[in-house]
Design a protein that fits this description.
Mean pLDDT of chain B: 93
CATH topology of the largest domain in chain A: FAD/NAD(P)-binding domain
Largest sheet of chain A: 8 strands, mixed
Low-confidence stretches of chain B: none
Radius of gyration of chain B: 23 Å
Strand content of chain A: 25-35%
Number of domains of chain B: 3
Distance between the termini of chain B: 51 Å
Number of helices of chain A: 13
Low-confidence stretches of chain A: none
CATH class of the largest domain in chain A: Alpha Beta
Largest sheet of chain B: 7 strands, mixed
CATH class of the largest domain in chain B: Alpha Beta
Strand content of chain B: 25-35%
Oligomer: heterodimer
Helix content of chain A: 25-40%
Number of strands of chain A: 20
Mean pLDDT of chain A: 94
Distance between the termini of chain A: 44 Å
Radius of gyration of chain A: 21 Å
Largest interface: A-B, 32 and 27 residues
CATH architecture of the largest domain in chain A: 3-Layer(bba) Sandwich
Structural class of chain B: alpha/beta
CATH architecture of the largest domain in chain B: 3-Layer(bba) Sandwich
Amino acid sequence: MVQKADVVVIGGGIMGCAIAYGLKKKGVGRVTVVERRGIGEETSSACDGGVNLQTKAPGPALKLAKRSVELYQTLSQELDYDVHFEKYGGMVMVDSPELMGVVEHSVAEQTAAGVDVTILSGDEARRMEPCLSKRITAVTYCPDDGRVSPIHTTIGYAKAAGRAGVEFLLNTAVTGVTVEGGQVTGVETTRGPIRAEVVVNACGVYAPEIGRMVGLDIPILPRKGNIVVTEQVAPCVEHNLICARYIALKHDPDLAKTSSDPSMRLGVNLFLEQTHDGNIIFGSNREWSGYDKSTSYEILCAICSYAASLVPFLSELNIIRTFAGLRPYCEGGPILGPVDGIHGFVMAAGHEGDGIAMAPITGEIMSDYIISQTVTEDIRPFLFSRFSQQKG
Amino acid sequence: MDRTNDHPILTFEKGRQVAFTFEGRELTGYEGETIAAALHAAGVRFLHESAKKHRPRGLFCAIGNCSSCLMKVNGIPNIRVCVEPLREGIVVERQIGNEKARVDAAVERKLSDPREVIEAEVLVVGGGPAGMCASIEAARAGARVILLERSAKLGGQLVKQTHKFFGSEKQDAGTRGIYIADKIQAEIEALEGIQVWTQSIAAGLYRDGIVMVDRNGTIEGIRAKAVIIATGAFEKNLVFPNNDLPGIYGAGAVQTLMNMEGVVPAKSVLMVGAGNIGLIVSYQLMQAGVDVAAVIEAAPNIGGYLVHANKLRRAGVPIMTRHTIKCAYGQGKVEGAIIHELDEHFQPIPGTEQDVKCDAICMAVGLAPLPELFFQAGCDMKFVPELGGYVPVIDSERHTSVRNVYAAGDSGGVEEASSAMLTGKLAGISAARDLGYDQDYEAKFRDYAQQLESLRPEGGKIRNGLRKTKEGEPVQYEK
């Protein structure tokens, strides 16, 4: 039996669910999400929940991030599902003098871009967040940084989309995308074909697989990060904590190669937050190892040691779980919007570590694009064609 | 006080008497026994309240596997009191749901330096009969061995077996399990090549080949050339209304209480399961002065040895085949159970319900292997009901599909204690041989393999299960 849809969204992660929800909310008739496993089983459930403004590079990404935070403020009400969003504020912790320069530069840029970021001394920061080690000499503080439960957000979008009439085909893999005369005509799946003139590739780290089905070489690479979860404890960490290394490595990954610090060479950096349920979740590192999601003793020890050096009380807690997630890395940010030469094939993948923060706005602008077929200024910097232009 | 004062086989050496507080009441127990045992002896069955439905929970496994006995000790929540030793003056409280620990986030702590990874030849995980035998064989062959045991002492379930073992002379037939355990332990102490780490939990086996060990609160990494997994099994329960009432115990928990701690588990017990464990534990209960109301068994036949069954019958204990438990009842703890008869399709026959008054229900309905480390190592796994659940695919030399990972004992498929010792021996010689310590390997292999064969009845469950591990595809999981 051949099914029909107006839009097929491939991928049931946070992006696919947000886009499907946006489409249906705006009145698109038949929207089908095809997911090879279950909702949010890959990157969307193997990540932190930081919705941070001060870690975003000024420019188009930061502009979108600000709008995304606005959308998060009312998202629980809109989806009728608690996504646990709260603006707790975020701190970037500086523990070595050479990182102070990186941080000052970043704060100047952020301030110029209209983000409320200030530099606080270590003592000022400890008054607000007593868990910080005395090693921390300064922090940059942004009151607008927030935090969300990534899993609840993904499920919230999926439930709201389902209630609005989006069809979800779970445990269903896309095996081919059909194109006739430069126009997408549908997808082949393990449960039969679906005809559709618009197909959205929201497959995150697996987006290149779908790309190959239409002859595209999509430059998204899986970048692994190890994450540690502790037992639940009473509220004791209020802010999202990020180390300055995170900022430095995000903007200049080569720093890891040249550093004299062994844990820096492993790409170890720190994010840390206390979840709604009380677990402390922290990590992470940046690692290229293909699609392998295994954890290693060496990396986990390096992450734990580094985390405890900045937030010493962690050494008292029991670890209940460790895992690794794959972030969809793409140079220059995500790939959004149409692809030249394949009409109806739409990209929405490659947010690396910003996917959770960017999901609400991505759902909005992608559904707008699909309905209007107009490339706005929001999407233009993230078009796939940026890669061919570079080469050309 | 529910303590065994006069046991036909066992004597209980207890520490000094100490006072502690439970829910504001002053109680006494013996230093070093588990908190659960001390509470049990004082008549306390209700230890924990479930998070959502606020149901009373008590002891179930008594070896730290399940989480039904989590309590607050000196204000710290989530303590498994079944493995936590009693100390003088501690304050024990019933825990409601998932209580969160309070931490003082502001106190600066001195951090220890990262520790060097320890290099080892053979690492054995689990100090029960299989792990102990594996260690001895590997060390005798010349390998250096580290043996990890989660609890404070070696022996696993073997130290709770007061009955005489079957098999042949080589397997110490006719000797009580507790004495076999003593003998093996003496051998381990005499061997220089074995380092025993007690209170050491293998927390993970990582892809860089390192086993993370929580050694009494300190994290150590061990990179071993061979890892023998002998983590054992855990007790299954059945699904029936009120199967979580305090007073419903795994058979192992009953043995732990009465044979290790000298605590009388109940006045009257309904035994569910007439395999060897159900029969033996029933007899042991009678030795400890407990009334066994009945032994019920869903299958049409008694699964265990008739020698054991006959001992019970002579004592007047009814063994009811084709019967199972319909539900348990009681206010806050077991007061009885409704049992009913099953037809040939294992369906209950209406109108056959009987009320059995008892203050404990002992579940002897089988064990499931503890497979986590095999999964984490990326071993090929299969689900084989005859062997208890998920088991690694292994060869006759106990190799798994991962080069340096070996399976010993129940973790590789549930059998019984004598087989566990033999599969441990095989894993031990095999790991040593693969490291180059191959003297007399062939002869030893033939001997142990043949003994093992003789313990596995032709056409029986184990042989069928082992055959199944060789058929079909392994289970799919993320490696």
